[in-house]
Amino acid sequence: MNSCSKDDSRPWNAVNSETLVAQSNFDWNTTKTYQLTLSGSLSHIVKITSAKGIVFQKVFLSAGTQCLTNITLPSYEKSVHLVYNNKDIEIALSGSELTYSF
Predict the structure, then answer these.
(1) Is residue 6 part of a domain?
(2) Inside any domain, residue 66
(3) Sign, Cα dihedral of 45, 51, 54, 56
(4) Angle at CA of residue 67, ends 65 and 72, nearest 5°
């Protein structure tokens, strides 16, 4: 066998989308949107990141005021990190509206 020939010896089963059955509660969305309300005692940038450090969004937080932001994340994310003034806080994505005060 050379590298340019097709190997048809592997079994391959095509799935017809019309006969595909999924549970009634299956979520077909690949993203989820969350509303974050953040507040802190210092004016500083907050980075919203994944556990691996991928920055999803940056927002400027003014001291003593609430910052409201919406963020759309991959559905597989179960938590995010809030990096603010050398603090790294992990919060669970437990609902569509999240609040955190530094």
Answers:
(1) no
(2) yes
(3) negative
(4) 170
Q: Which domain holds residue 89?
A: 31-101
Query: Domain holding 97: CATH number?
Result: 2.60.40
The pair of three-digit structure tokens given for residue 50, joined into one six-digit string:
């994944």
Q: Is residue 18 part of a domain?
A: no
pLDDT band at 98 (very low <50, low <70, confident <90, very high): very high
30 CA to centre of own chain:
10
pLDDT of 11 above 80? no
Q: Which residues contact 47 (CB under 8 A, 6 or more apart)?
A: 55, 57, 58, 81, 82, 83, 84
| Distance, first Cα to last Cα, the chain | 63
In a domain, 39, yes or no: yes
